[in-house]
Design brief:
The chain has ten helices and two strands; from the N terminus they run H-H-E-E-H-H-H-H-H-H-H-H. The protein is mainly α. It has two domains: 55 residues; 211 residues, no CATH class. The relative contact order is 0.10.
């Protein structure tokens, strides 16, 4: 986060320039004033570039998130680094899935690759569990993900029922038994999501009532109660991640090995495209 001085400094320069303008106005020209204004803009731009350079060296400037984050917690910073490594590993797993499908590997060999990808997702849920204890707000707001991904976040991750809905059209042909299994999984996921969403809404309303209610003199006591209630956020994120993890484990039990491999490849490619979309959006021409 930029320090207050970073914003004050250009105005300080402006005051000096205005004083200089007054002194030179009796003998200066309009062209000199225009030159001073250009110089001022260059100085401000140079200072801003230097500020961002310092933040990058400190690891505080996250270009993918659209700005500088100066007050990120240590737990959140560690998770972001681990998540970056996880994304790199994700590319390797996707390549193995793609190669295995194209090479027409035996079911047993392909099963090893699919199980490896499931374990890969188990790892991110483990990392998120650790991060939730340190900074649950970082997870639930999706600050670790790209802007496009954040548009679809539900309690710090994907909504299982929506993921299943997206997969159904990608996994044809399915047997009647598989269709029933998929829709049953989607239905149970939807019910669990609704229960968690209602619980979170109740927590939010309870926080509003706690913070807004009572006399001002009891403000510190209100904050203490509110902090205790906020601790429940970790439980909601953990339960949502458990639902996501269970969904990913259930899919291979319904699908064939090749369908499961295709399923996880579709998931990986979908999120890779969302991240690519964010990059294109960030680098789009602006007027």
């Amino acid at each position: 986060m930029a320090e207050f001085d970073d914003f004050v400094y250009p105005y300080h320069l402006l005051e000096e320039q205005e004083s200089h303008h007054h002194q030179q106005s009796r003998r200066g020209s309009t062209s000199e004033k225009q030159l001073d204004a250009k110089t001022l803009r260059r100085l401000a731009q140079n200072r801003e570039a230097a500020r961002k350079s310092r933040l990058r060296k400190k690891g505080l400037f996250l270009g993918g998130c659209g700005g500088a984050v100066g007050n990120i917690s240590s737990g959140a910073a560690i998770f972001d680094m681990e998540y970056s490594r996880w994304l790199e590993d994700d590319q390797r797993h996707m390549s193995e899935l793609r190669t295995g499908l194209h090479a027409h590997l035996s079911d047993s060999d392909l099963r090893v690759i699919v199980d490896g990808y499931i374990s890969h997702y188990d790892e991110i849920f483990r990392l998120k569990g650790v991060a939730a204890k340190s900074d649950v707000f970082h997870l639930i707001t999706g600050m670790w993900s790209t802007p496009a991904e954040r548009c679809f976040l539900w309690m710090g991750g994907f909504r299982p029922s929506e993921l299943i809905k997206m997969l159904i059209s990608q996994l044809d042909p399915l047997t009647e038994q598989q269709v029933m299994g998929i829709y049953s999984l989607q239905h149970s996921s939807t019910q669990a999501e609704e229960a968690l969403s209602q619980g979170l809404e109740q927590l939010q309303q309870s926080l509003i009532d706690t913070i807004a209610g009572g006399p001002v003199i009891d403000g510190m006591q209100q904050m203490a109660v509110a902090l205790a209630k906020l601790a429940n956020l970790e439980s909601f994120v953990r339960q949502a991640d458990n639902l996501r993890q269970q969904t990913l484990h259930q899919l291979p039990r319904i699908l064939t090995v090749r369908q499961a491999a295709r399923c996880f490849l579709v998931i990986g490619e979908y999120y890779a495209r969302l991240r690519a979309l964010s990059s294109l959006w960030s680098s789009r021409p602006r007027e």
